[in-house]
Amino acid sequence: MAKGYFLSAHRSPANPQKREAYLALATPAFVKAGGKILASTNIIDAHENGVVQQTVLIEFESFEKAKSAYNSPEYQEALKALDGGADRDIRIFEGKWLLFSNLILVGHPVICLK
Fold first, then answer.
1. Domains of the chain by range and CATH?
2. Angle of helix 73-82 versus helix 63-71 axis, rounded to 10
3. 4-13, 45-54, 103-112: which range is least confident on average?
């Protein structure tokens, strides 16, 4: 089964007090929902329309579980605590393993993920 992911990419710095209140509720909400925080950083090499701001990636057992975590009463309470204190792009997406075993592109390496 494909994993589910929650990606939070900030566009600007969050309000520090609201961020702390949010994190105190959001972290246990995601853990309770089975989330595993894979990365949380502001050390970013941004490209195209990207910005150098806090980015968080959380993995879930499935896409449905990632969506359920976002919609859970516990996470909704965290959003109330954030109360507009952050300008973020939130994406919940399904991750799929790709296998390019017979793909040959001139001048490009072949990618094999298993």
1. 3-95 (3.30.70.100)
2. 60
3. 103-112
Q: 86 with 9: CB under 8 angstroms? A: no
Query: What global pTM score does this model have?
Result: 0.83
C-alpha span between 17 and 29 (Å, rounded): 19
Q: How far is CA 81 from CA 11, 93, 103, in A?
A: 19, 24, 48
- The amino acid occupying position 22 is Y
Rounded CA-CA distance 47/17 in Å is 29
| Spatial contact of 39 and 55, defined as CB atoms under 8 Å apart | yes
Q: Cα(first)–Cα(last) distance of the chain, in Å?
A: 13
* Three-state secondary structure string covering 81-93: HHCCCCCEEEEEE
DSSP-derived letter for residue 108 is B
Taking only the tens place, the pLDDT of each residue in 43-77 is 999 999 999 999 999 999 999 999 999 999 999 99
Query: Across-strand partners of 10?
Result: 88
pLDDT at 13 over 90: yes
